[in-house]
Amino acid sequence: MRIMGLDFGSKTVGVAISDPLLITAQGIEIIRRKEENKLRQTLARIEQLILEYEVTEIVLGYPKNMNDSEGERIEKTKEFADKLTRRTGLPVAFWDERLTTVAADRAMMDAGIRRENRKEHVDKLAAVFILQGYLDYRKNQADRQEQE
Predict the structure, then answer these.
(1) How many angstroms separate the CA atoms of 6 and 17, rounded?
(2) Mean pLDDT across the chain, nearest whole number?
(3) Rounded to an integer, what distance in angstroms lies between the CA atom of residue 24 and that of residue 19?
(4) Which of 35, 63, 99, 139 is the most exposed place for a label (fewest CB within 10 A)?
(5) Where does the pLDDT of residue 99 fall: very low under 50, low under 70, confident under 90, or very high at 90 and above?
(6) For residues 119 and 140, what is the distance between their CA atoms, to the nearest angstrom?
(7) Domains annotated on the chain, with CATH
(8) Which is nearest to 95 in space by CA: 40, 137, 124, 37?
(9) Residue 143 pLDDT more than 70?
(10) Band of pLDDT at residue 121, cut at 50, 70 and 90
């Protein structure tokens, strides 16, 4: 059993996968497309990865604005989530993705990755931050229930 984390953007989808024990998230790839609304190949690739990694749940970054309002990207993200659910039959959970791209960029800067090379990896690393946040939350909830 694994969980897939996705950072859905206008032309890319960063993909991360949990380990089988649901402790850590690893970035695996960035799916790129030429046009924003051309999702068929993107969905087909996600479906392949789901089968390859035996994924049972998907976590999708939820792009709220910094002031907690919901903008235009939210609607596109919800539509993408609906398409994912219909195509894969898997549950899709939303996870607040505010600042994940900033955190990913900062982590690469700290690792000494040159600015021109960061764009190549930022979406995949943002997917890792989304999934890791979700995994940590699940673990904390389980730990809290055990203590009660």
Answers:
(1) 9
(2) 85
(3) 6
(4) 35
(5) low
(6) 32
(7) 2-147 (3.30.420.140)
(8) 137
(9) yes
(10) low
Which amino acid is present at 137? Answer: Y
Tokens 């051309």 sit on residue:
38
The fraction of the chain above a pLDDT of 90, given in percent, is 53
Give me the pLDDT at residue 134, please. Answer: 94
Q: Which residue has the tokens 């989530």?
A: 81
Token pair, residue 71, equals 């903008």
- Average the pLDDT over 65-75 and give the result: 73
C-alpha dist (Å) from residue 20 to 17, 31, 67:
9, 23, 35
DSSP per position, the chain: -EEEEEEE-SSEEEEEEE-TTSS-EEEEEEEE-SSTT--HHHHHHHHHHHHHHTEEEEEEEE---TTS---HHHHHHHHHHHHHHHHH---EEEEE-TTHHHHHHHHHHHTT--HHHHTTTHHHHHHHHHHHHHHHHHHHHHHHHHH-
